[in-house]
Amino acid sequence: MVEGTPRIVVVGGGFAGFYALRYLHRRLAAEQAELVLVNPTDYLLYSPLLPEVATGVIEARHIAVSLRRALPRARLVLGHVTGADLAARTVTVTSAPASGPTEVTRERWDRLVLVPGSITRQFDIPGVAEHARGLKTLVEAVYLRDHLMHQLDAADAEPDTDEGRARRRERLTVVAVGAGYTGTEFVAQTQRWLRTIERRWNRTGAGDIRWILVDLAPTVLPELGPDLGLLALDLLRDRGVDVRLGVSVASADDRTVTLTDGTVVATRTLVWGAGVTASPLVAGLGLPTSKGRLQVDADLSVPGVPNLWAAGDAAAVPDLAAALPAATPPPTPPTAQHAQRQGTALGRNVAASLGVGTARPYRHRDLGLVADLGGRDAVAKPLGVPLTGPLAKVVTRAYHLYALPAMANRLRVATDWLWQAVLPPESTQLDVVRPEDARLAAAQGTRVYGSPAG
Ligand SMILES: Cc1cc2nc3c(=O)[nH]c(=O)nc-3n(C[C@H](O)[C@H](O)[C@H](O)COP(=O)(O)OP(=O)(O)OC[C@H]3O[C@@H](n4cnc5c(N)ncnc54)[C@H](O)[C@@H]3O)c2cc1C
Question: Residue 137: its pLDDT value, please?
Answer without folding.
Answer: 98
